[in-house]
């Protein structure tokens, strides 16, 4: 069947009612749905952007583009250059709750309601599909009164005390190019192979402000499956664009058309195996119920100095490929996944088993991401800035998230040891003193002492030391503190294993670090010169040279600067 015949058939079917009240009930239901779907000016724009993104699924093109324009100070255009409308697509947007995406795993939508959002903002919507046109128009003369309902519309309205309205939102009208407003026709014919939705807006200034705000928040496009180029034409003839590109280090750069970086993000994508326990969620759409795997993407913001910067405030929202309005949890990163959302896609269902499971995956995958980054030279020292904190919100999603924080930190080897091995937090130690470095006491003696005094016994790695970070200390990692260090240096256990060779290395280290505030503060308290009996002590060389261990003393005679430094005390 041709697209023209499909449109004509749908008009005949969806405008044919036995009774006028049936048509009116449908019209009122559609109006209520459209009004409720998207309450702010951006929501229906998001829906059209998503439709444009889905149009590139399976469609080969070098750079998938979405073009957002305001024409003649009256019309909003959201256009793409992907697949043209099929008969199935036309039927999909003319029904309620049975759209074409409900079973398509490669497309984002699943409710079959999204397109109805545009009717909350307009009474005239034109679809252009590569030279073919049809429209939805509330006041079209194509709608004829059926005399089987009553003599005429006026008498029916008087009798029933209701104004009659057709359910125009599901009644497509075939449109010839000559019926299209001139400004729109010129814009469309200047585009090559364009597929567009054109909306005559009731409040153009409100929508224009929203689009200009959208252009200043480019990260909202980051999780689209296909689109990498977003073009804006609003109040002037000048077109601006945002380009989404992947850099060599795997990060995402979003830049203006002048190549000036607008924002910079580090992304981590994973595929999650869906547990059977969540498939019983009554809200789960059929296409997700069929899947055994679901995708999740985490994004960290990178500042101009290549440092990880927490996402804050209203920017910290959850994404279901396009942003929701959920910022309650104030996560420091952006999270995108197939969350179950309400009809407006502004909120997610807190009591959903599916969403609770997805929330439990966020900390787990964050720790895995940190593990990856610690092995990347560029991001290794910055990875711990991603460590998840518990969230204070009091609901089921927060509970699952916080429980996952507790569980994941114990089992995922997200720490990188000094000798470049991945360790779990129970295998690792943070050395506040830095004495575990190879040019000082070294890791073996300190590790052995920590194990010697621990109760219950720790299960530390062969070299358990990791880079010091206050974020790790807050997670409860074992710490080798200055107090613990003093206890070790004064213990018989340590003295029995501390050789003259080790002592010489220790003295050299203290000398090289002599200007360190921490060393200067504690130097008089640190027993670091081995005596004749083999014990480490703090010895004044002028009065006790005879008691310094002979091997250490012989070495000091060859090191005048170090010996002179010691005499100053």
UniProtKB/TrEMBL annotation:
InterPro entries: Auxin_embryo_med (IPR052957), HATPase_C_sf (IPR036890), SACS/Nov_dom (IPR058210)
Top-level taxon of origin: Eukaryota
Residues covered by the Sacsin/Nov domain: 38-235
Name assigned to this protein: Sacsin/Nov domain-containing protein
